[in-house]
Amino acid sequence: MTLSWLSIFRLGLVQMCLGAIVVLTTSTLNRLMVVELALPAVLPGLLVALHYGIQITRPNWGFLSDAGGNRTLFIVGGMGVLALGGLGAAWGVALMETAFAPGLAVSIAAYALIGVGVGASGTSLLALLATATAPRRRAAAATITWLMMIFGIAATAGTVGAFLDPYSHALLLRIVAIVAGSAVLLTILAVWGVERGVDAQPAHDEQSFVEGLKEVWAERHARNFTIFVFLSMTAYFMQELILEPYAGLVFGLTPGQSTSLSGAQNGGVFVGMLLVGIAATGLRIGSLRSWVIAGCLGSAASLAAITVAGSAGISAGLMPGVVALGMFNGMFAVAAIGSMMALAGEGRESREGTRMGLWGAAQAIAAGFGGLTGAAAADVMRTVVASDATAFGTVFLAEAALFLVAAAMAAKVIQTARAPGRAAMMPGE
C-alpha cells in the first residue's frame, strides 16, 4: 500500500514546519546581527554555514532509513531538536548585545542543533516519501511538499515581520517560542500513523554505510546530478544572508519591513513552483530541463534588476525585483526537485533514502558555502568601496553569473528528465 494524497499532504505539513523554523534563523536573526547589533555579515554567515555543514550527515540518515530506522521517530525527534535550536539561536542574539562571548557560545550550540534537527527530520521524511509514494505520484508529491515548505517559509516570515515591530529581544523570544512549539505539535499530528499504513519495508543487507554510499556514487546519473545540485544551490543561496541587510543598509527598511520582504520573496518562490507544477505536470508545457534553464536565466536577470535599483536609488524597484527573484528561483527549484524524485528510484533498489541524502548533503554544503561566500564577499566589498549599494550589488552580479553557468550545466545534465504525465498531478485519482 502506498501513500494516499491525504498522507502526502500530511507529510507536506512537516516540510512546512521545517521551513517555518529555519527561515527565522537564516533571515530574521541574520538581519538582527548585522544591522541592529552592527556585527560583520560573516558572523551569521559562519553560523548558518555551521548548520548546513552538519547536514553532511544527511546520507547517513538516509541510509539508516533504508536499512530499517524508525522514520517516524527520526522525523519527530529531529523536529524537536530543531525547535530547541531555533529557541537557542534567538536567545543567543539577545545575549550578544550585552555579553557577546556567552551569546556566541549559545549561538554556536544552537545552530549545531538546527543542523542535526533538519538533517534527521528532513532526510527521513524524504526517504519515507521516496519509498512509500507510487512512482506515478513521486513528482507530484515532491511538488506538493515543497510548495508547502515554501508556504511555511513565506507565511512565517510575513507574519513574524508584522508582529516584530517595534522590535525587542523579549518579543523575538516569544514569537520564536510560539513558532517552534507549534511546529513540533503539528509534526506529531501530521505523521501519526502514516508509516504504519504503507508498505515501505527497509532493505535488509549486510552493506555498511560507506559501501552503500560508494555504490550510489558509482551511478553516473546520481553523481552528475549531485554536481549540478551543488553548483546551482550555491548560486541559489548566495543572496540568502545579505538580502535583508542590503534592504536595511541601502533602503533603510526596519526589521519588520525587511522580514516582510523576505516573506514576499518566498511568496514569489511559491508562485514559481506552482506555475511549473501546473504548466509542466498538468498542462504538459515544457520539459523539466527547459523550466530549470528558464528559472536560472530569470534569476540572473532579477539579481541584475535588484542591483540597479540599489545603485540608482530606486526604492520602488526593490520589492518587484525580489518577488521576481523568488518566482524564478521557485521555477528552477521545483523542476530540479522533479528530476531528483525521478532519479531517486533509478539504480539499485532500496537506496532511495541514500540518494536523497546524498543530494540533500550536496544542497546543504552548497547552501552553507554559498551563504558564507556571499556574506564574506559583501564584508570585503564594503571595505573596498564606499557605497553599500555598490558593495552588495557586486556580489549580486557575481551570483547572477553563477546562475548563468548553472543554466548551461542544466542543459547537459538534465538530458533525459521529462515532465511527468498529467495523471501525476490529479488529486482525485
Automatic annotation (TrEMBL):
Alphabetically ordered keywords of this record: Membrane, Transmembrane, Transmembrane helix
Family recorded in the similarity comment: Belongs to the PucC family.
Transmembrane segments: 29-52, 73-96, 108-132, 144-164, 170-194, 224-243, 263-283, 290-316, 322-344, 356-378, 390-411
Gene Ontology terms: cellular component: membrane
CDD domains: MFS_BCD_PucC-like
Keyword Cytoplasm: no
Protein name: MFS transporter
Principal subcellular localisation of the protein: membrane
UniProt membrane topology term: Multi-pass membrane protein
Location of the protein in the cell: Membrane
Organism: Rhodosalinus sediminis
Keyword Membrane annotated: yes
